[in-house]
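User: I'm writing a short report section on ligand binding and want a predicted complex to refer to. Could you take this sequence and zinc ion and write out the structure as tokens? A short remark afterwards would be nice.
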Amino acid sequence: MSPESLLGLLTVGILIWRLPGWCFRAARWIRRRRFEQRGRLVASQSSAWGPGYFGKPAAATNPHPGRVLQAKLDEIGSLHPSIESTREGTRLQLGAQSFESTDTLDFGQEIGAVPVAGLIAGFADYLDAGKGGCRPQLAAVVAEATRKYRALDLYAPPLRAADSEAPRRFWTLATSIATNPNADIRLIDPARPELAERIAFSVTGIVAAQLAEIFFGHPDLLAAFLHRPRHIWIYANDSAFAHEGGVMGGDYNPEVEAVQLVMSRLFEGYSETVPGTCPLLHELGHLLDAVNIADGRIGRAEGTLPGLAPGDGRYFQPAARQLFLDGKRREHERYLAAVEGRNGDDPPLGHPYVFHNDGEFIAGYFEMFFRNPHAFADTCPELYASFQAALNVDPRSYVRSDFDGYVSANRAFYASGQPVPRPGISVPTD
Ligand SMILES: [Zn+2]
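Assistant: Sure. The structure tokens for the complex follow:
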């Protein structure tokens, strides 16, 4: 065979060998483009985020001034409003209280006075955008009417610590997140983008607050996290979510490297005195696992948090990794004992679901770290200490009592004698 034909054959061979990879990459690129060109880029384009911490004055004015009533948002902000229409007019119902559309609620110095008519219109926008499936707390509706972050304190558990400087620090951080061009926070309803835009301020604010909760103790880590675009896409209703392949109300979609969540799920866990279920925290746990914090690229999810993997560059904390492995091993052993029906009174903290694989393990414990830190620290001190070191925060300092939902339900499951599925997690030995 001549050198020319050998070279030709080699070229054809290489082409055939590489072709599937090129096709795959091209298809992924096309899919990504399709995703990225819809919805609204709320975070960096909305003019609503201009003035920062102090917000804008309320846009709505009351055309028929009536009663002005003093109200405390920290007392009634967690209530879910409802609208009642009668022949006399439309009223806003809040628990046992009822307000005329001509009333004004004065929330004091920080938030100011808000006409009830504006709250009714804002709440109706939420109902409409969510197609009846989303009922936010009053706090979100007030935030939308006033364009003030402080109205969203309900969604910021770190502010429950008695630290007078915390709100300013917290909302300054949340503002920096919401206005960062790499924080791709969107509220998506392809069918009605104008409607989504009308409630985007509060939705973006709640997402930014949950990111600020994660990074409150470690702003450097936040900077590294936002070194590249992070996609957090909230869908106004179930049909918009399902249309883009969302599953189980919320997920981390590695194909488009995005957290996807139905809007209604943002409001779970904020109606009781103790912050509860938080699906967005769980999905952000998956995203943090996927990010390689050393260079900001999305890599292979290894079931760790930034700082706990040897590839994390200057963020790597070897001592914290050792604690992480010790703690995970202990939970794994407890779980294996449960599988074999010999765990007695020492079950693992997490639900069998989180022992399914390493990714669910980290996301599940990540959410519990923020919501039931006391039980977490008592049951798995090493694992808790590793999370504390990775994020430089101890949620026990502001979570006065645990959200007991997961803890009790999981204990009850292991005590029930039901069969426990075999685990799929790994515990590396360094
Ligand atoms: Zn998950």
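A remark for your report: The chain has two domains: 51-290, 313-415. The beta strands are 68-70, 82-86, 89-94, 97-100, 104-106, 113-115, 183-188, 230-235, 250-253, 258-262.
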